[in-house]
Amino acid sequence: MNVPRKDRVLFLDIDGVLNTPQDRMYPDPDECLTKELLARLDAFVSEVQCSIVISSSWRYRHTVFSLRQVFARHGFANVEAIIDFTPDLQTGAWNNLFAERGLEIDAWLKEHSEATHYAILDDTNDMVHLVSHFVQVDDVTGITNADLVKIKDILES
Ligand SMILES: [Mg+2]
Questions:
Q1: How far is the CA of 44 from the centre of ligand 1 (A)?
Q2: Cα-to-centroid distance, 156 and ligand 1 (Å)
Q3: How many Å apart are CA 30 and CA 62, to the nearest integer?
Q4: Exposure of 4 by Cβ count < 10 A (0-12 exposed, 13-18 middle, 19+ buried)?
Q5: What gap in Å lies between CA 150 and CA 54, rounded to an integer?
Q6: How far does the centroid of ligand 1 lie from the alpha carbon of residue 55, in Å?
Q7: What is the pTM of this model?
Q8: Which residues of the chain have pLDDT under 70?
Q9: How far is the CA of 123 from the centre of ligand 1 (A)?
Q10: 19 CA distance to ligand 1 centroid (A)?
Q11: Which domains does the chain have, with CATH numbers?
Q12: Ligand 1 centroid to 104 CA: how many Å?
């Protein structure tokens, strides 16, 4: 594959983005991926050459290396585009187990000034002030080509 561009970063959620409701039901969480949706993202990454930073809760049970292996096992070729995870800002308080993802993405961006163009794919809208970079995915379908057209516009603007 091409070397991913460090100036273009796609923040990627997984559940509801890369799996359909049926494919979220496997007992092994690492099987909960829809190959057609991964293939769609793979083609996009080949074209746009963006880097990928994972914002999904999958990062709590994976390293970048092991997540690349899971994606590769499901046919995703551009695994080296996956470069990092967003930081975990959860407070641990019972009613605030997960920080808003937008804040975690913002924290990552503050450490990576080279990422001059970024876009966010998620099925949940907790992107706070980053919402103009955000494309909300319908968790019934997972990512669509229409979503990726919007993401491309954001990354290339
Ligand atoms: Mg999700």
A1: 19
A2: 24
A3: 10
A4: buried
A5: 19
A6: 9
A7: 0.93
A8: 1-2, 91-99
A9: 5
A10: 9
A11: 5-156 (3.40.50)
A12: 15
